Amino acid sequence: MKLWENARIVPMADAVPGMEVIDDGALLTDGESILAVGPREAVLSQTPLADKQVEEVVDCGGGLVLPGLIDCHTHLVYGGDRSREFEQRLEGVSYQEISRQGGGIRSTVAATRETNQQELAALALDRATRMCANGVTTLEVKSGYGLCVEDEEKMLLAARSLRERLPVSVHTTFLGAHAIPEDFHERSDDYIQLVCEEMLPSVARQGLADSVDAFCENIAFSCQQVRRVFEKARELGMPVRLHADQLTNGGGAALAAEFGALSADHLEYTDEAGVKALAESGTVAVLLPGAFYFLKEKQCPPVELFRKHEVPMALATDYNPGSSPVDSLLLVLNMACVMFGLTPRESVAGVTIHAAKALGLSDRGVLKPGYRADFAVFDVETLAHLCYPIGVAPARLVVQAGCLTRPLHQRP
Ligand code: NIG
Ligand code: FE
Question: Measuring from atom 6 of ligand 1, which residue has the nearest CA?
Fold first, then answer.
């Protein structure tokens, strides 16, 4: 057992508004799980300290302790970069236009196909290491830059290899329906058939993905095509999520809801009917302020409607080379407050409790007995102090499954 003391704890669960920080708090962990959390005195009184079962006492330095951060939407496995397209966009060419000209996602597909699994894994490791320093203990990673059986699987294997190399939980998502590959130009239905008949069954057979995603948009796939992918996922018993209503209102939110999706992501153009559908299906709205900022979008997601209909809002980096080259979930907290009008508490809930729900994980995202001992300690006073600077100092301590993983030299 380990005792983590001198902590100001924000459990993100059962909070009394205005009283969400437990000053002089402590956590008791046993292996991968939390045994007790609360005011130090209370934790100590339920602790068999006398039995000398506490093997280690760790001083959290008076820092703010949060559940380990969860980045529930990333595309961090990819080859190449999109700096040339960035310049084109600065000259006034739109993201959609670049995509229609055969660039965009397809240019990253070409670069990813040319990069082997080991190189992809090394690039992803470097990116994920920086994310973990910010307090991330669970990371979702999508495929979607391979667009054929072999290259999609190569991406998923590269993503899964992070599990052995970093102290982070990795949730992988098959995003075969991300773009229409060049060899299927004007044959998008044929490509969807390949996704449903070959790619998805092969990925499922090998257990390479925890969920299935698609890009529902006029520059990608129609609702009808996404429906085919989701039906196949259902047949294979895999949960779904969807890139929905990012650039236009294509009815993506309602489609995601119809299939009981874990999450619908982006949602800038979702209308009230779509929001209501998400509320009814218990689907999490994942907001991605990095992509909104980088594509200079004008229409914010309908945050007021999410509040009104009590749709949980998660936040993620959407880390990718084309629309959101940001690896800092802490910066995303700031962006969500400034651009989308979330409160600091809503923002932090978006990268903890609601992000866990977006991944279908019920063992993390809050600090409570029985939950995973994943937490991060920041040298800040309050949740507002975590959100208001543009670029906060990385986490002082990161604990994953009960083990100190940052700073690494303190690893027992
Ligand atoms: O989430 N919207 C689709 N997919 C990514 C962008 C990927 C890319 O441009 O490479 C997104 O924004
Ligand atoms: Fe995305």
Answer: 323
Q: Which atom of ligand 1 is nearest to the CA of 78?
A: 10
Pocket of ligand 1 (CB under 6 A): 75, 104-105, 108, 215, 243, 246, 291, 318, 320-324
Q: CB count, 10 Å around CB of 272?
A: 11
Quote the pLDDT of residue 256: 98
Q: Which residues surround ligand 2, an ion (CB under 5 A)?
A: 318
If you measure from the C-alpha of residue 75 to the centroid of ligand 2, how many angstroms do you get, rounded to a whole number?
A: 6
Nearest Cα to Cα of residue 60 among 406, 409, 397 = 397
Give the nearest ligand 1 atom to 220 CA.
3
310-322 confidence digits (pLDDT tens): 999 999 999 999 9
3-state SS class at 30: strand
Tens of pLDDT along 321-358?
Answer: 999 999 999 999 999 999 999 999 999 999 999 999 99
100 C-alpha to center of ligand 1: Å? Answer: 14
pTM, rounded to two decimals: 0.96
Rounded to 5 degrees, what angle do the CA atoms 392, 398, 402 make?
160
DSSP assignment string, 220-273: SB-HHHHHHHHHHHHHTT--BEEEESSSS--SHHHHHHHTT-SEEEE-TT--HH
Domains in the chain (CATH in brackets) are 2-67+364-406 (2.30.40.10), 69-358 (3.20.20.140)
Q: Find the ligand nearest to 71 CA.
A: 2
409: confidence class by pLDDT, cuts 50, 70, 90: very low
